[in-house]
Amino acid sequence: MAMNDSVNILNSAYLAVEYIDSFLPDNPLQQPFKNAWNYMLDNYTKFQIATWGSLIVHEVSYFLLCVPGFIFQFIPFMQKYKIQQDKPETWEKQWKCFKTLLFNHFFIQLPLICGTYYFTEYFNIPYGWEEMPRWYVLVAQCFGCAVIEDAWHYFLHRLLHHKRIYKYIHKVHHEFV
């Protein structure tokens, strides 16, 4: 009985989104994105797309999202919002933090990103434009991934503060503001 109720709710939500979607104008960026996606599929292998494409998207989005925070810490007006008021920022600390980030991204995260291709192959995730989910499915999946990642990050971070491993592994994280 509970299963039928949840299926009915999901079907109703799906129909509501489809109804609203029918009123929205066509996305003018869809055709250029489709052309670029198909060009990528024609000129690169799945391994290259999954590994190097994921790395490029990860690095560009990570550092672009960090730019506002980096700039804000050097604006005097923003200092009142700083959590650790007793630790001033310097360019030397920022350079050390940047070098540590680059090391972590390329020697820890890159090997994990290399597993993306094998993950997509194992779960038979298609790369074609036609098989791509609708926009609202992508939004829901991104939201779900953000919730899972945030919970994972929170609990792992708490675990890294355990007295037996903090000084060996996690202490470097708290060197930076």
TrEMBL record:
InterPro entries assigned to the protein according to its UniProt record, in alphabetical order: Sterol_Desaturase_Related (IPR050307)
Gene: Msmo1
Protein name as catalogued: MSMO1 monooxygenase
Keywords of the record: Membrane, Monooxygenase, Oxidoreductase, Transmembrane, Transmembrane helix
TM region positions: 60-79, 100-120, 135-156
MF-aspect GO terms: monooxygenase activity
